[in-house]
Amino acid sequence: MERDMELVRELLLLIESTNDRQELVIPEDWNREVVAYHLKILDQAEYVDNNTKWADNSPMWLMASLTWDGHEFLDSIKDNSIWQKTKAGIKAKGLEIGSVPLDVIKEYAKLQLKSVFGIE
Fold first, then answer.
1. Residues 62 and 39: beta-carbon distance below 8 Å
2. Crossing angle of the two packed helices 68-77 and 5-17, in degrees rounded to 10
3. What is the pLDDT of residues 82-102, one digit of tens each?
4. If you count Cβ atoms within 10 Å of the first and of the last residue's Cβ in the chain, which end, N or C, has fewer?
C-alpha cells in the first residue's frame, strides 16, 4: 500500500481535534483499512500512539493520540498555505509528496514556515 500524505495530514488533524480516549470518527468515503494502515505506519514513525482494535479481520475501532513528534510535525504542516507551498516546492523538484521521506517534508515545511516569520 502506498503512503498517502494528504491522508496522513488529515488524520493528524482529526486526531488532534479528538479526545484521545474516543474513537476517531472518519468520513464515510475513507477506507477504514487504508486509515488503519496509515495509523500503523504513523505509530511506527512515533508520530501517534495507535490503539486500533480489529474484529473479523477488519478495523472496528480506530483510536490514536498524537505524540510530541506528531504534534511537532502537524504544527509544521497545519496551515493550509504552508502545506500548499510545501507540496508545490516538492513537486517543482519533480517529486511526488508521497515519495519524499517524512523528515524531509517536515524540514521543508519548517523552511516555509520560517519564511513567513522572516527567519533565515
1. yes
2. 120
3. 999 999 999 999 999 999 999
4. C
